[in-house]
Design a protein that fits this description.
- The chain contains nine helices and no strands.
- With 219 residues, the protein is an all-alpha fold.
- The protein has one domain.
Length: 219
């Protein structure tokens, strides 16, 4: 098998990382169950994490794997846009959104892992537990997903680099990230990533042929 054939196969399979991302993050949320909110008294947090340390550790593993898969999924989106008529800026926006969301998921996984390992010891300071807990309960935000969704929407609607229905749903979902239903929108985003990954894998598109000719100097 030639390098070009291997690269083509990898390009076609890579979007399926969106399906893995959705499954892993949803699984992590399901395993950990209801999480105390940011207003939970600090004195209650060490006991909560000590009682749920095994669940939190498993969730950390799943969410960390989801972060890796999201990075691959975002790179696959960028690769599709790079070989289309879409403006290069849109691909850059998708990449920035990918980096931000990957960092958010990776940070959450690392924090869960830390709390799972430290909480069983009675010496965990409530103030320290609260500061780490706030990272997973309050810190984050929809900036990364919003940028990725807007980049996809513009590329699909304006340039038809992706299925237009994928672009319109991305646009609606990007707006929903900033409404009172943001949590529900974040859950729907997982479904969107899975559907987008399947769609791109089944419809790989036609890459723009590259020319082997050397550039002609100007001036």
């Amino acid at each position: 098998m030639t390098i070009d054939h291997r690269s083509s196969r990898l390009t076609r399979v890579a979007p399926l990382a969106g399906v893995l991302y959705a499954g892993l993050v949803y699984g992590g949320d399901l395993v950990i169950g209801p999480l105390p909110d940011g207003e939970t008294p600090a004195g209650q947090l060490p006991g909560y994490y000590a009682a749920h340390s095994s669940q939190v550790a498993i969730a950390a593993l799943l969410i960390g794997g989801g972060a890796v898969c999201f990075a691959v999924f975002g790179a696959a989106l960028w690769e599709r846009l790079r070989h289309s008529a879409a403006a290069a800026l849109l691909g850059a926006i998708v990449l920035v959104g990918t980096v931000l969301e990957t960092g958010t998921q990776a940070s959450a996984a690392a924090t869960y892992d830390l709390l799972a390992r430290l909480a069983p010891f009675s010496g965990l300071d409530p103030a320290a537990a609260q500061s780490w807990h706030l990272v997973v309960a309050e810190v984050g935000g929809p900036v990364g997903p919003t940028l990725l969704l807007l980049g996809v929407a513009a590329a699909a609607i304006g340039y038809r680099a992706l299925p237009r229905w994928l672009g319109w749903t991305a646009l609606v979902l990007a707006a929903a990230q900033w409404t009172p239903w943001a949590f529900l929108a974040s859950m729907v985003f997982l479904l969107w990533a899975a559907v987008a990954g399947l769609t791109l894998a089944l419809r790989p598109g036609r890459p723009v042929p590259r020319t082997a000719e050397a550039p002609i100097p100007v001036g």
